[in-house]
Amino acid sequence: MRWAEVLTDRSLKYLPYKIELDKWGNVVMSPASNRHGRIQGILFAMLEKLAGGRALIECSVATPEGVKVADVAWCSDVFFDRHGYETPYSRAPEICVGVRSPSNSEEEMRFKTRLYLEAGAREMWIVFEGGGARYFGAEGERAVSGYGIDPLPLLNH
User: Which of 83, 101, 100 is nearest to 91 (CA)?
Assistant: First the structure.
């Protein structure tokens, strides 16, 4: 399948899963919990306040391994002026965030981190449903976000 077909496929419209495509066009689905959705909302609100850009929930990005969907993303005004609401984005926004739920393996999260960074993200965050976060840039794992923000105090309620 192509992403445009996924968006218009009525049989996929009301599934309670996050949908992505692998490099062969196969649909990949992941279940999401209410806690997962709450964390997405908190991260969106926090990133929306970051100066010079805007936040998105369920941000689709074309990668060499198919269309991946960041749970939350932040794109600068420059990025948005260039790409608008292109779907999927041909380049990853500056910050891509994956909320890791129990159904995600460490290998899967490393794989998605690599894909988003190779697609142009400056930072990839992995936020854990149970608390905690990891930050990655082109050089590898970082102790903190290079954007000077820390979502953890907001996530612990």
Answer: 83
Q: Which domain holds residue 112?
A: 32-155
CATH of the domain at 58: 3.90.1570.10
- Identify which of 67, 68, 43, 78 has the alpha carbon closest to the alpha carbon of residue 57: 43
Tell me, yes or no, whether 16 lies in a domain: no
Residue 12 placed within a domain: no
For the chain, what is the domain count? 1
Question: What pLDDT tens digit does each residue of the chain (157 aa) get?
Answer: 677 787 788 887 777 677 777 788 877 777 778 888 899 999 999 999 998 999 999 999 999 999 999 999 999 999 999 999 999 999 999 999 999 988 788 999 999 999 999 999 999 999 998 888 999 999 999 999 999 988 877 777 5
Tokens of 70: 């960041």
> Could you tell me the pTM of the whole model?
0.87
SS3 100: strand
Q: Strand ranges (DSSP E) for 10-121?
A: 17-21, 27-31, 53-63, 66-76, 95-100
Residue 23 lies in a domain: no
The pair of structure tokens assigned to 106 is: 């460490």
